[in-house]
Amino acid sequence: MLNFDSIKNRIFQFIFIGLVTFASINLLHIIASDPSEAKSSGYWDVLYVEGSAQWRPAKNDPTWRTLRNNLQLPAHVEIRTFGTGQALIVHGFDKIEMGPDAVIEISPEADADATTVVSQTEGKVGYSIEKRKSGTFSVKTRYLVAVVKGTGFSVDVSDQSAAVSVEEGSVSVSNANDGGTAAVGVGMTASVSANSVGVSTGSTGSSNSSNANSNASSNNGNNGNNGNNGNNGNNGGGNGGGGGSPNENSVAGSNNGNHGKGNNGNGNNGNNGNGNPPI
C-alpha cells in the first residue's frame, strides 16, 4: 500500500534540495564575477534615440548592439551614432547628448560615482554634468582635455581639431600635447588644432581666437607704421619739389614722396629741389 505522506515528504525534499542548489550556483557566480562590473550594471539610462546608433560594453567585447530607447547600459560603455543618428543617455542629473557621427567611450575609474572619463574620438557631444568635486569628470580628445566640476558644455571633434563651448559654469581646457591650459567660462569657446600651441579661446560663434587676435594686432601695428611712413614720405616729396619748376618739381616731388621715408624725404628732397633751379 502506498504511503502518500512519505511520497509528499520526498517531493518536498527534492524541491528543497533543488532550490538550495540553484541559490548556491548563483551565489558562486556573483562571487566569481567582477564586482565593479556587477555594480555598474544598469548605470546609464537611454532616454532618446533617433536614427542609427550602437553600443557595446567597453571591456574586450567586440560585439556592437543596437541602441534603443529605455535600455540600461553599464557604467563602462562605448556608444556611436551614424549619419543623422542622435542619442541621449542620463545617470541621475548627468546627461550626455550625442549628435550625428559621434563616438564616445565612458570609463569610470574605481568607483563609477566618483570619477568618470569620457574619451570622445568623433563628432559633437553635449554634456550637462551635476556639480561634483573638481577633476572627477573629464572629456578627453586627441587634441584637448576638458575637466569640469559641474556645468553644461559641448565638445566638437574633427580630424584636425577639437573645440569646447561652454553654456553654463566653467571648464578647464588643456592642450593634450603641450599641457597649455585655459579657463573657459559661459559664452566662450576653446579650441586646439593639430599643430597649435596652447589653447585658443574666444567668444562662442566668433572665428577669432586669443592667438589669432594677437597676430592680427601685430599685423595692424605694422600696417599702421607703414601707413605713417608712407604719409611722411608723401609730405617729404611735396616739400622737396619746391625748388624746381612747378610741373617738373611736382612730378619729381611726387615720385620722391612715394619712395621717400618720413624725415629723410623732407630733408633730401627739399635740398635737391632748392639746389637745382629750373633752366
Structural summary, described in words:
- The chain has helices at about 5-30, 35-40, 210-240, 245-260, 260-275, and strands at about 45-55, 65, 70-75, 75-90, 95-100, 105-110, 115-130, 135-140, 145-150, 150-155, 160-170, 170-175, 180-185, 190-195, 200-205.
- α3 (about 210-240) packs parallel to α5.
- Mean pLDDT is about 70; it is low at about 30-40 and about 205-279.
- The protein is elongated and about 90 Å long.
- The protein has five helices and 15 strands.
- It has two domains: about 40-210, Sandwich (Jelly Rolls); about 225-275.
- It has a 15-stranded mixed sheet that branches.
- It is of the alpha+beta class and about 280 residues long.
- The longest helix has about 30 residues, at about 210-240.
- The chain starts with a helix and ends with a helix.
Query: What number of structural domains do the residues give?
Result: 2
**CATH fold-type name of the largest domain:** Jelly Rolls
* H-E order: HHEEEEEEEEEEEEEEEHHH
- The helix content is 25-40%
Distance between the termini: 157 Å
Task: Indicate the proportion of strand residues.
Answer: 35-45%
Mean pLDDT: 72
User: Compute the gyration radius: what is it?
Assistant: 36 Å
- The CATH architecture term of the largest domain is Sandwich
What structural class should be given to the helix and strand makeup? Answer: alpha+beta
- List low-pLDDT spans: 29-40, 207-279
Q: What CATH first level of the largest domain would be assigned?
A: Mainly Beta
From the spread of the alpha carbons, the general shape counts as: elongated
Number of strands: 15
Largest sheet: 15 strands, mixed
Number of helices: 5
Domain FecR protein: 95-171
Keywords: Membrane, Transmembrane, Transmembrane helix
Organism: Sneathiella marina
InterPro entries: FecR
